[in-house]
Design a protein that fits this description.
Shape: globular
Largest sheet: 7 strands, parallel
CATH superfamily: NAD(P)-binding Rossmann-like Domain
Number of strands: 13
Strand content: 15-25%
CATH class: Alpha Beta
Helix content: 40-55%
Bound molecules: nicotinamide-adenine-dinucleotide, thymidine-5'-diphosphate
Oligomer: single chain
Length: about 350
């Protein structure tokens, strides 16, 4: 039986990933979810599996070496999937320090703990024990030529404190592979969207604001381009890389779906109008009049675009969900989970841990 240690499993992608692997492997696996529950961690994302046999939640900071070491000592962890990070560019511009602490030092703590647990006396590693580091395409910087794409060989050129901290963590993983032969992979993926995304990121923020008749703040001229990937496709890619990819390799995971931000916002408006019932009063205020151009983000990268050729060729992964389907599925999820959204925006979700776990 495989035991996964998933860090940041209460966040957006991590919680989708835990759902994905339980759906795929069922009772054949155990999952230990280590999460500090920062503002971005929401245990309500995992409500339906919280009592599942084979699932354990540990509230811990990935920088806490003693606790992380203990988790490795007490369990035969053979898969680490490392999501935990500070992930929002705007926050990194305001306060870079916590990004360095969690993303760089936290990753180092995870690497040290896994190496201590897995390295044998002769320098080899326990067989079939692997670490996957989840990173971002933002480490490659910004593309100016419309014909260019990010490949695994593209030189790192991070600009924001967020992407600089992720680049640093990637280099630390590479250093462990090169120096100690540490069994790892790195994935660099494009912008994700889908269920459970915290409404500080573009897509859930726009859905939430539009439904509440609030303005839709578009940074700068709205012409920055991101390559949008449906989160379940990303989770599938991570699993395929870890099980079928070549150890020590980096794989880019992208949606092949480049859109300008303003196009995303207009698509959300038209899809909301299309999906809401004819007699829903909110239809009246969901119009392009809500769009408000605001001061641009400092150092705003212009375009990200991934060429996911290597992952397709080597493990057979490709983005299955086209944007038109993905955005409808995402909006349908937010319609069905309005209470989740209200609890996130009011801050009430942060009481959930106390109420569910304080007496356990
Ligand atoms: P998120 O912000 O939604 O979740 C991060 C999770 O990590 C939260 O549950 C939080 O509580 C936890 N966490 C933060 N600091 C911690 C610490 N010190 N110790 C333990 N847990 C801690 O992030 P996400 O969007 O799910 O992103 C997950 C990973 O994927 C990150 O590494 C991010 O860099 C990467 N990534 C995200 C995207 C995207 O579009 N969201 C794109 C590319 C890469
Ligand atoms: P975001 O979701 O924060 O992801 P990232 O910065 O990691 O790509 O932002 C996506 C794009 O949308 C980015 O170009 C910034 C822009 N944006 C807005 O125009 N308005 C907003 O309110 C937000 C949150 C983002």
């Amino acid at each position: 039986m495989r035991t996964y240690l998933v860090t940041g499993g209460a966040g957006f992608i991590g919680s989708n990933y835990i759902h994905y692997i339980f759906k795929k492997y069922g009772d054949e696996i155990r999952v230990i979810n280590v999460d500090k529950l920062t503002y971005a961690g929401n245990l309500e994302n995992l409500k339906d599996i919280e009592d599942k046999e084979g699932y354990t939640f540990v509230k811990a900071d990935i920088c806490d070496a003693e606790t992380i070491d203990r988790i490795f000592r007490e369990n035969d962890i053979n898969r680490v999937v490392h999501f935990a990070a500070e992930s929002h560019v705007d926050r990194s511009i305001k306060d870079p320090g916590v990004f360095v602490r969690t993303n760089v030092l936290g990753t180092l703590t995870m690497l040290n703990a896994a190496r201590n647990a897995w390295e044998q006396e002769d320098g080899s590693y326990l067989p079939d024990h692997k670490f996957l580091h989840v990173s971002t395409d933002e480490v490659y910087g910004s593309l100016s030529n419309p014909e260019d794409y990010f490949y695994e060989t593209t030189k790192y050129d991070p600009h924001s404190p967020y992407s600089a901290s992720k680049a640093s963590s990637d280099f630390m993983v590479k250093a462990f592979m090169d120096t100690y032969g540490f069994p790892a992979n790195i994935t660099n993926c494009s912008n994700n969207y889908g269920p459970y995304q915290f409404p500080e990121k573009l897509i859930p923020l726009m859905i939430h604001n539009a439904l509440h008749g609030k303005s839709l703040p578009v940074y700068g001229d709205g012409m920055n381009i991101r390559d949008w990937l449906y989160v379940e496709d990303h989770c599938k890619g991570i699993d395929l890389v870890q099980e079928k990819g070549r150890l020590y390799e980096t794989y880019n995971i992208g949606g092949h779906n480049e859109r300008e931000n303003i196009t995303i916002v207009k698509t959300i408006i038209s899809t909301l109008r299309d999906m809401l019932p004819e007699d829903d009063e909110r239809r009246a205020h969901i119009t392009e009049d809500l769009i408000t151009y605001v001061t641009d983000r400092k150092g705003h990268d212009r375009r990200y675009a991934i060429a996911p050729d290597k992952i397709k060729k080597e493990v057979g992964w490709y983005p299955e969900t086209c944007f038109e389907d993905g955005i409808r599925k995402t909006i349908a999820w937010y319609f069905d989970h309005q209470e989740w959204m209200e609890r996130v925006t009011s801050g009430a979700y942060q009481d959930y841990y106390e109420s569910m776990y304080s007496n356990r």
